[in-house]
Amino acid sequence: MKDKMLVLENGRVFYGQGFGGQATRIAEIVFNTSMVGYQEIFSDPSYCGQMVVMSYPLIGNYGLTDEDYESKNIYMSGFIVREYNDIPSNFRFTKTLGEVMTENRVAGISGVDTREIVRIIRNFGTMKAMITDSSRSVKDCLVALRETSLSKTQVDTVSSRKIWYSRTRNPHYTVVAVDCGMKLNILRKLNQFGCNVVVVPYNTSKTEIEKFKPDGLFLSNGPGNPEDLPEVINLVKEMKGTLPIAGVGLGHQIIALACGAKTKKMSVGHRGANHPVKNLQTGKIEITNQNHSYTIDTDSLKGTGLALTHTNLIDGAVEGLADESNMVLSLQYQPDSVAEDENIFSLFTAHMTKAGGTRDAQKNRY
Q: 245 and 329 in contact (C-beta within 8 Å)?
């Protein structure tokens, strides 16, 4: 029985079976082309305020396991799949996808033509959509979609409410990480590279951050429009040149804005684990994991001091930036999944080592 329907802002309607949370949800609809990793997608805070169409047809077949979440909370609004499997075959699984979606009020619909939905988004761009009961009037749904404004406070929703710590054995550096919706795997990578991490809310002041005497500042990934975060943009402006700074995802866009560049919303965005990116410094091609709706205007980089280091081979989007004189680095894609010797974590720690040596030399002079 087809008890749920998906209504798109452009008037298209798809009927299917509901799973997960049963409440009506309205959000921006996007698609992801990953063939595996639905748990990491489902728990990524960058999907706050969005419902995701999975282009791969079978979802749920290996369940969810406690160790693989990217966040302590779930912020996605809806999950749209071709075929949902509620009987996982993975020995590691602790809960089914549907169970966790029910617990977190994430609406789900299966049995719909996800290929057609992906084509609609690809051709017409992202739009608002609703998952609701199939008995509801489509006309009423379209009125509700037109009258609903999408939130501009996603980062405030996903950011931590207090300062907390992610420590490692034998640390070499102290890093303050500004939480705009940080994936836990980013923290694991920073720990792996010898960093004790102090995670702070997105609106933490420069004065508060300086109390920790950090060796570096890290700006996390997260959801939404970077222009809606003047607090973080101003923080980067204030701290640029005083210590090494690195950013990924949303953090990459914030760094660009703080340096004087401009960002713009993409028609479809990049979401998937198969985006080819060229490292212009090494000439290597990296197959990357991406999730973002906004990109940096390439022409606006002139005069900012930022050099283009990585570019997307599909559409030429800006994927990496660097300002060596101020020890600033950023990547648009998620670097925790790229196996490369000179990734952003190793370059960031190298900058902190260099900056620490400079500070020690200055102390010795006095």
A: yes
Alpha carbon 51 to chain centroid, angstroms? 14
Residue type, 76: M
Q: List the structure tokens of 8.
A: 């798109």
d(CA 201, CA 235): 12
d(CA 246, CA 176): 11
Give dist(CA 67, CA 146) in Å, integer.
40
Beta strand pairing call for 83-84 and 58-59: parallel
Per residue of the chain (366 residues), what is the pLDDT tens digit?
689 999 999 999 999 999 999 999 999 999 999 999 999 999 999 999 999 999 999 999 999 999 999 999 999 999 999 999 999 999 999 999 999 999 999 999 999 999 999 999 999 999 999 999 999 999 999 999 999 999 999 999 999 999 999 999 999 999 999 999 999 999 999 999 999 999 999 999 999 999 999 999 999 999 999 999 999 999 999 999 999 999 999 999 999 999 999 999 999 999 999 999 999 999 999 999 999 999 999 999 999 999 999 999 999 999 999 999 999 999 999 987 665 556 899 999 999 999 984 444 344 322
Q: Is-above-0.90 flag for pTM? A: yes
Residue 273 dihedral angles phi and psi, to the nearest 5°: -110, 20
Long-range contacts of 340-348 (CB under 8 A, 24+ apart): 340/279, 340/284, 340/286, 342/282, 344/246, 344/248, 345/189, 345/190, 345/192, 345/193, 346/193, 347/246, 348/193, 348/216, 348/218, 348/244, 348/246
